[in-house]
Amino acid sequence: APSLREAWQAAGDDAARWRVVIDQVATLTDQQAHVWHGRLVGR
Question: Best exposed site among 2, 23, 36, 43 by fewest CB in 10 Å?
């Protein structure tokens, strides 16, 4: 399976790039998701 970076670079349009983002979020553990959320909202 290609890495997420490779998948992003190979994505041909916005829909394909969104799929890569969704796939990455789907691989997060709960703890990782909380850390990401804190970074995104500044907490």
Answer: 43
